[in-house]
Design a protein that fits this description.
155 residues; globular; 5 helices; 28% strand; alpha/beta; two-stranded antiparallel ribbon; single chain; Glutaredoxin
Length: 155
């Protein structure tokens, strides 16, 4: 499993996205990108995180950045999730978890004594040069989007 570090070139990707079409890192070449991985649409923490990033999206855009949320959910689930909560960030579907594996966030987790594989909530700030400028592993949602925005502004 790859271990990405600050300064590494962010692995490119192309995934299906909410609303149809595809999204790739390449299409934002020369712009910063906030790429955040989350476990599942419409769960409490994931919903709060998506709403936080959506609420701050005008600030992220003012700083020139795109915000992309990635989970193993289907595009259809992403569409429902976005519609239900008025989300305006990009939601990419990583159904085969290839991107989560590439970024090293597909991990063994444990809940109620049961071990399973899942996405570890992690955010990557990718600079305009395509290099990783910030990594937040095991994200706690409260105040996270604001923290990422501050780091973006400091680039």
């Amino acid at each position: 499993m790859p271990h990405l570090a600050i300064g590494d070139t962010a692995p490119d990707f192309e995934l299906p996205r909410d609303g149809g079409g595809r999204v790739s890192l390449k299409q934002f070449s020369g712009k910063p990108v906030v790429l955040y991985f989350y476990p599942k649409d419409d769960t409490e923490a994931c919903t709060k995180e998506a709403i936080s990033f959506t609420g701050l999206l005008p600030e992220f855009e003012k700083a020139g950045a795109a915000v992309i949320g990635v989970s193993p959910d289907t595009v259809k689930k992403h569409d429902k999730f976005a519609q239900k909560h008025g989300l305006s960030i990009i939601l990419a579907s990583d159904e085969d978890t290839a991107l989560a594996n590439l970024y090293g966030v597909w991990k063994e987790k444990m809940m109620y004594g049961r071990t399973y594989m899942g996405v570890e909530r992690t955010t990557f700030l990718i600079g305009a040069d395509g290099r990783i400028a910030g990594i937040w592993p095991k994200v706690k949602v409260a105040g996270h989007a604001e923290e990422v925005l501050e780091s973006l502004k400091a680039l």
